[in-house]
Amino acid sequence: MELLLEGLTGVFQISVLFILLMGIIAGITIGSLPGLTATMGVALILPVTFGMEPVTGILLLIGVYFGAVYGGSLTAILINTPGTPASAATAIDGYALSKKGLAHKALTVSTISSSIGGIFSVIVLILIAPQLAVFALKFSAPETFALAVFGISIISSIAGKSMVKGLIAGFIGLLIATVGIDPIGGFPRFTFDNTNLSSGINLIPVMIGLFAASEAFRAMGNIFSTRKLTIVVEKVKLKWIEFKILIGTILRSGAIGTFIGMIPGAGGDIAAFVAYNEAKRFSKNKEDFGKGEMKGIAAPEAANNGVTGGAMIPLLTLGIPGDAVTAVLLGALMVQGIQPGPMLFENNGPIVYTLFVGMLVANFMILIVGLFGIRLFTKILLVPTTVLTPIILVFCVVGSYSLGNNYFDVLVMLIAGIVGYFLMRYGFPASPIILGIILGPLMESNFRRALVMSQGNFDIFFTRPITVVLLVLAVLTLFSPLLTKKVKKPKVEGDV
Amino acid sequence: MKKPNYISGLIIIIIAGFFYSQTFDFPQLDSQLIGADFMPRVYCIMLILLGCILLIQTYRDKEEADEQENTMKYSIGAMFFVILYVIVIPYIGFYISTFLLVLGLLLFSKVKNKILLIAIPVGTSLFIYVFFQILLKVSIPMGTLFS
To answer: Residue A172 has what pLDDT?
Structure first.
């Protein structure tokens, strides 16, 4: 409780609130631009945060993250193009309502559901995370190794179409992570006598390249397929009675989203579709779904914002990012000298609780900004890609340069961007690479430390209960896509 | 997607093989059972195996998968613009090169609106100046030609 109060004082300062608000607005803007994802937004804004206080910087990124997830629904509802994959389910009924001229109502439902789903998930985060962290404190080298293996095993769920290609991407990431000084012996590896390489390849420029530059290159290939848009948002208000019917759906979907968010590898898109299907299953008028049923907007929106708080649980307590956005956030925390994991709650308690309070405030801000700014944000959709792409590319270069005024980082970003473009084009996903770079050193150093503990005996990995459970979980996770493929049925084709 | 799969599979095997060969140059302590070379070797072997699986999968996959509709021409063009940009920044400085890059990319994507052609490049440079140089105090390179 004391820590929560400390968090409150940490957040309720004019400058922090202002930066959080800026983050939300930037996030909504980025999320509502088709082709710009939450991950790209966070990666682009990341360099800006280095000069800030750790908490302020992270809250800015959280604002961008939450705002972008919410903003993705704007385009889904208005032009049937989900701004982020997580809002693909929203497009089904959202666009149907827009076609009936009820876009304003649809956006209001989406705003309210998003913020309630988000608030719900942050409350769960505040309740669960400290307990999990206390449990994880017992972890020693073998457990941490198993945890890292588990974290890496989620590659299979984020691999996309081809599991082999996802795994290749993951191992490329792991191999990149070995460049530099080896974590135990201190020997240089793959440095080719280059001093820049001896400290390893910096994660941030790789992320900016893979998630922002490569997307910008891809957008250049699509510039002549952009269509003309005309958006009219009539002001038809949501009535209190209509909202009352939705409350059950919103809370249930928020819970679904939070729970799915906690599982590494299962992101907002899965949560949104599961919540949508559940809402349909619970509904008396199943045939209304797909024709503009408001529950069909409330469910996926509450769920995909619920994921945000849920995904922070494994990130903060175990240091395991569940998807690309949380991987970027993990990178940001590490740059600020905050190492997520069980020790975080011991060492940086006040910071953690300030983040918690900040996340609650962020969701309230979404509600306010969303309700008052809807009509303004619809104007963003009119910005053409041709204008955006050059600006994004300049930002990629300046951003990676400003990390440490080092030109080498710019080269790393550029190579990552170009390689990333070709990888994406030929079906290799980018997120496993990042996951490999982040978790590789954690896995290797603890693997070797564990073997030093056991004097070279591999039994240490099979005789400790938590280690065994985590390794079994890792194997199950690796093969889970074969099972979950049936759950995820994206029906909407969109530029996501 | 057959041809790209073959090519990417081969590239991965070659790169992994090269990195594998490099691991023999790592300095070693005799006392260590699992040394600095162990994990990189595991990763390389896995990459070679996965590369082979990709080749075999592609070979056995009969259907010719869908071709992508968007052309690569403009994407690769943009890459050349950015490569050139990164090369010239140290010489002519950040602001002039940014102006030229943004203007170049806009022309490249056939933007004809004259106001946009001036406003976007100037605006971008100005924004970077205010935000990065003044607010974040990043030392933006001014270029050897002007210093």
So the answer is: 95
Among partner residues B16, B53, B70, which is closest to A225 by beta-carbon distance? B70
Model confidence pTM above 0.95: no
- To the nearest whole angstrom, how far is the Cα of B6 from the nearest Cα of chain A? 11
What whole-number distance in Å separates Cα of residue A421 and Cα of residue A430?
9
Per the CB < 8 Å rule, is A386 touching B74?
no
Closest CA to A366 of A105, A22, A99, A111: A111
pLDDT band per the 50, 70, 90 thresholds, residue A104: confident
CA–CA gap between residue A257 and residue A402 (Å, rounded): 36
Nearest of A93, A36, A88, A102 to residue A67 by alpha carbon:
A36
3-state helix, strand, coil in chain B (%, to 5): 75, 0, 25
Q: Under the phi-then-psi rule, with left for phi > 0, alpha for psi from -120 to 50, and beta for the rest, what region is A290? A: left
Closest alpha carbon within chain A to B78: A217
User: Of A170, A133, A216, nearest to A324 (Cα)?
Assistant: A170
Residues B138, A405: C-beta atoms closer than 8 Å: yes
| ipTM of the complex model | 0.91
| Residue from the list B16, B38, B124 with its beta carbon closest to the beta carbon of A394 | B124
Give the residue with greater pLDDT, B3 vs B102.
Answer: B102
Place of tokens 């998968």: B65
Q: Mutation target for A interface from B31, B54, B105: give the one with most A CBs within 10 A.
A: B105
Cα separations in angstroms, A144 against A121, A167, A474, B23: 26, 21, 13, 26
Tens of pLDDT, residue by residue over A107-117, are: 899 999 999 99
Residue B39 has pLDDT above 70, yes or no: yes
Residue by residue, DSSP assigns A72-86 as HHHHHHHHS--SSGG
β-strand partners of A189: A180
The strand pair at A188-189 and A180-181 is best described as antiparallel
Q: Searching chain A, which residue's CA lies closest to the CA of residue B29?
A: A185
The model's pLDDT over A40-68, given as tens digits with 9 standing for 90+, comes to: 889 888 888 887 888 899 999 999 999 99
Per the CB < 8 A criterion, the answer to whether A348 and A118 are in contact is no
d(CA A265, CA A310): 12
H-assigned helices in A80-162 = 88-99, 103-136, 141-153, 155-158
Q: Which residues of chain A have a CB within 8 Å of the CB of B39?
A: 174, 178, 440, 444, 447
Per DSSP, the three-state class of A180 is strand
**A426 and B83 in contact by Cβ < 8 A?**
no
What does the pLDDT read at residue A103?
83
Q: Which of A228-237, A334-343, B79-88 has the least mean pLDDT?
A: A228-237
Query: Is 70 exceeded by the pLDDT of residue B32?
Result: no
pLDDT at position A388 is 83
Give A-chain residues touching B81 at CB under 8 angstroms.
393
* Helix, strand and coil in chain A, % to nearest 5: 75, 0, 25
